[in-house]
Specification:
heterotrimer; A: globular
């Protein structure tokens, strides 16, 4: 098992794999985005209550979902790094953070833009937005810790512990915030609107979510392969790769 | 041999930390002083209206407690890190979990426990209603150990780093939020006359979770940063 | 023509919908461009260094 892991998790193999997989993710993302945007902006009918304003959902919900998903990947990669001591999983974990923070930031901003026409204010302390804000703090704390520790391997392992502590806390935080929200009788309609959505509205949402996931895969692979190149800069295989034609 | 050494080592480390903590009184009193100052900022900025302060008292006290506690975390591991005793502790034959537990308990005894008394004093400043006193004490009894336990994780991860005090606080405050939500809700509900068993059970659950997982995380973090 | 204006107007919510999509486009594009630029700069730097070492 260990031999298998060291072979497939070797930086060189991971680099080649990343290079090969990236186009697949990238093209899938592009096509899915086009389909999703058409579906969300044109195909889906205006909402009964929110009119065309509800279309923000197609950039808000996928961003929120990805912000959580990225954290899970970050924690998982961190755990892998702790258990198997692989450098590649460290690279995956540390590159997830800025991406996850970006998704969280988008979820917050689009949520704010959605809230203004619906409830009149640019911010609403509803359960989802509040959870997203706390998640942003968790990401920023993780990134602050990583940048404060100079030695890369130590930073990755410390980050992994923090991410795992975060993973345990996220369900607790989420549940607490929901409970807190019901306590204080916030707006009774949550940001996701009606519990059931018409299929014509739901399908573009699923497509957009898939688009975001493929996008995440592509970008993460690019970031990780750059990270590997930088870390392994002195090895012979990197010299060969860099010497090849190409900018 | 290892089994019999553990309780002895635990008590020895606990006593050492308590003695050191009491010797360097500033480490002990500064967070409590901060707590009081933060408390006084609120009437100064809100005005002395009794009803307003009374309604906000549980929240203000708990927020001040959380802030003061997170700033006292720096002291848990820093001095040991600086003089090399942290490495000695990790190298000792006693299980790391036991020794980590001793340090966290010492921290709680020196910061969390006195905080409960100071919180009652703060209650006087903020016109805390009588019905809130027992809930306040109960939530602090259940909550301050959690502050110490989870805080120790942040302390261990950032020990010796530049700007560690602030970094610790940034890392730890989001993790304190569920505790804050349920503690303040418990006190407010008690004032309104509702039963608060549910909230207290949740706080108890948080404490149990912290007792089980935090020492493990702290030991791992110390090994990563110091080992 | 009327169709496109109606589309852009987004039923009166244009002030909110288009900035939301615009910001999303901006952030997602930036996240693609940054690592690609970094890769190009890194490769250039490494190639230069390797050439110097060989010389």
């Amino acid at each position: 098992m260990y031999a298998w892991i060291t072979k497939y998790a070797s930086p060189r193999y991971a680099y080649n794999l990343a290079c090969r997989l990236t186009p697949w993710f990238a093209w899938s993302a592009a096509l899915l985005f086009i389909a999703g945007l058409y579906g969300g902006l044109v195909y889906a009918p205006p909402d009964y209550q929110q009119g065309d304003g509800f279309r923000i959902i197609y950039v808000h919900v996928p961003a929120a979902w990805m912000s959580l998903f990225t954290y899970m990947v970050m924690a998982g990669a961190g755990a892998a790094g702790l258990i198997w001591k692989t450098k590649v999983s460290d690279a995956v974990a540390r590159n997830c953070a800025p991406l996850g923070a970006a998704f969280t930031f988008l979820a917050l901003c689009t949520g704010s833009l959605w809230g203004k026409p619906m409830w009149g204010t640019y911010w609403v302390w509803d359960a989802r937005l509040t959870s997203e804000l706390i998640l942003l703090f968790l990401y920023l704390g993780y990134m602050a810790l990583q940048s404060a520790i100079e030695e890369k391997r130590t930073a990755a392992r410390a980050g992994a512990v923090l991410a795992l502590v975060g993973v345990v806390n996220i369900p607790i935080i989420h549940y607490s915030v929901i409970w807190w929200n019901t306590l204080h009788q916030g707006p009774t309609i949550t940001l996701t609107g009606a519990p059931t959505m018409a299929t014509s509205m739901l399908i573009p949402l699923l497509i957009m979510t898939l688009a975001y996931m493929c996008y995440f895969g592509a970008v993460l692979l690019v970031r990780v392969r750059v990270d590997i190149l930088a870390q392994e800069r002195n090895s012979t295989w990197v010299r060969e790769v860099v010497a090849e034609a190409g900018g | 041999m290892k089994g019999t050494a553990a309780p002895v080592a635990f008590l020895a480390l606990l006593r050492r930390d308590l003695v050191l903590g009491l010797r360097y009184l500033a480490d002990l009193s500064n967070p409590l002083l901060l707590f009081l100052i933060v408390i006084t900022l609120f009437p100064l900025s809100l005005g002395p209206d009794k009803n307003l302060l009374q309604s906000l008292a549980p929240a203000i006290i708990w927020v001040a407690a959380v802030l003061a506690s997170s700033l006292s975390l720096d002291a848990v591991f820093r001095s040991d890190y600086e003089d090399g005793s942290l490495e000695q502790i990790l190298l000792s034959p006693s299980p790391a979990l036991v020794l980590v537990g001793a340090k966290i308990l010492a921290h709680w005894l020196l910061s969390g426990a006195p905080l409960i008394l100071f919180a009652l004093l703060a209650g006087v400043f903020l016109y805390l209603p009588k019905a809130a006193i027992l809930p306040l004490v109960l939530t602090l009894l259940l909550g301050t150990p959690v502050l110490s336990l989870v805080g120790a994780v942040a302390g261990a991860l950032t020990v010796g780093l530049r700007g560690s005090a602030l970094l610790q606080t940034l890392i730890i405050l989001p993790l304190y939020i569920p505790l804050l939500i349920f503690a303040t809700a418990a006190i407010n509900h008690a004032v309104q006359g509702q039963a608060i068993a549910g909230e207290l059970y949740f706080l108890g659950a948080l404490l149990v979770l912290a007792l089980t997982l935090a020492p493990l995380a702290v030991a791992s973090s110390l090994r990563i940063r110091v080992g | 023509m009327g169709n496109i204006t109606a589309f852009l107007a987004m039923g009166g919510y244009a002030r909110f919908v288009w900035p939301a999509y615009g910001l999303t486009l901006l952030v997602l594009t930036a996240n693609v461009m940054l690592p690609l630029w970094r890769e190009r700069a890194l490769r250039r730097r490494l190639r230069r260094r390797h050439n110097q070492e060989r010389a």
